[in-house]
Amino acid sequence: MTKFTNDFLWGASTSAYQVEGAWNEGGKEPSVQDVRTPFTNTSDFKVASDHFHHFKEDIALFKELGLKAYRFSIAWTRIMPYGKVNREGIKFYNDLINELIENNIEPIPTVFHFDLPMRLHESGGWNNRKTIDEFVEYCKVLFDNFGDRIRFWQTINEQNMLVFASKALSGKPKTWKEVFQANHHMLVAQAKAMGVYHKGKYGGKIGPAPNIACVYPKTEKPEDMLAAEYMTSFRNWLFLDAAVYGVYNHKAMRILKSLNAIPEITKEDRKILKENTADFIAFNYYNSMTVSASNGKDQQGVDQQSGFSIKGFFRSEKNNHLRTTEFSEWPIDPVGLRVTANQIYDRYHLPLIITENGLGQEDILTEEGTIHDDYRINYLETHIEQLELAIDDGVELFGYCPWSAIDLISTHEGFRKRYGFVYVNRTDFDLKDLKRYKKDSFYWYQSVIENNGLQAKENK
Ligand code: BG6
């Protein structure tokens, strides 16, 4: 018997700047991602998978895959280039949303996924309070234009990773103080946008989309447990407590104090946070974290999923019980997904949807046009098994959208690191013909969706 409800949203994810390309077409303003120097030996984001020009063909493939939902992001720079509403940008997303609906695929948009308009970046980005108003205005344009067809809006993708991996994601390191002031402005912007949405009675639900990872203590030492609690508060609950309860987490505040990074929070900000909260929680999960008590050394992580340490509170450790991915050695931990889903549900009692989960790996296109990505199937299958158990535990889970629907450019490791069910024929520096090929994981996921879950092992 399947554990998944009949209307469970089996989906897949992408983000605008990683998949669309057409970086300077349709009246678009460049975003920070379009203009920053690419990381060593990786492509820029100018063409990506050229989804902007191939979206109908891609949606036909999503339909064949059987997707019930498509989680994508809207490029702020297409909708409001240089601060003005752009009809061409609105038309592009109207066409995309309508094409999805015609194919019975639920559109689940993210408002902002790492691609701040360059103009705003140059005037201080999220450190400038004015960006809050720009964001809210942009959201209102989205709700007014697409709100009649959207049931689930996500506000900001992985705000916590924008904070902890600011170097990997924007190319620029900042001080903790700057990072957490920017973070505070994002929290207020998100709350205001949720308020506008609720007040406008657009009829759907809205929530945040952070990256949440459970944190294990390295040993049974009480100090390691405390370290795990601190990291959990700092990495996870700081963001969700603000979005769901409208408050700052007290242990996260303790860390911010020690980093001299407590943001300026006005009385009005507190009111806004408190009065405008989330209806559901979308979260991304790739791996768990493991920590021990701090050894007094402060070191930053290198990318959005890797661990990091905070002097006096916690130190990231290797978990010797887990295999790791080939790229960046992220721990592979399906049980951690069950733990994480339970922790979130325990704390907030809101419906959950997983908006990213997946394995980035090099794929080989054979001469016959096939891609044998059994490693990806194995990753996804073991994670879905744990979702079934989480549902058994009582977690209210209404969707699962693995990363990614189609190959796209990784945030900092280029096109070589592929995640898709659909292969896109290009490399980092050769655009080839951008032809689409179905991977083995495509056919596997198709049957998962058809069966509304994994088939019992004995029937396979
Ligand atoms: C998440 C992001 O951090 O992880 C995605 O929301 C990203 O944008 C994904 O692509 C995988 O990370 P990476 O670095 O392998 O692309």
Explain this structure to me?
The protein is α/β, with parallel strands linked by helices and 460 residues long. The protein has a single domain, classed as TIM Barrel, CATH 3.20.20.80. The protein contains 16 helices and 13 strands. An 8-stranded parallel sheet has the order 5-4-3-2-1-11-10-7. A 3-stranded mixed sheet has the order 6-8-9, covered by helices on one side. Helix 15 links the parallel strand 10 and strand 11. Helix 3 runs parallel beside helix 5 and helix 10 crosses helix 13. The longest helix has 25 residues. It is globular, with a radius of gyration of 21 Å. The chain starts with 8 loop residues before the first strand and ends in a 9-residue tail after the last helix. The model has no long low-confidence stretch (mean pLDDT 95). The structure holds 6-O-phosphono-beta-D-glucopyranose (BG6). The site of 6-O-phosphono-beta-D-glucopyranose has 17 residues, from loops.
Question: What key attributes describe this structure?
Answer:
460 residues, alpha/beta, TIM Barrel, eight-stranded parallel sheet, three-stranded mixed sheet, 16 helices, 13 strands, 41% helix, globular, binds 6-O-phosphono-beta-D-glucopyranose
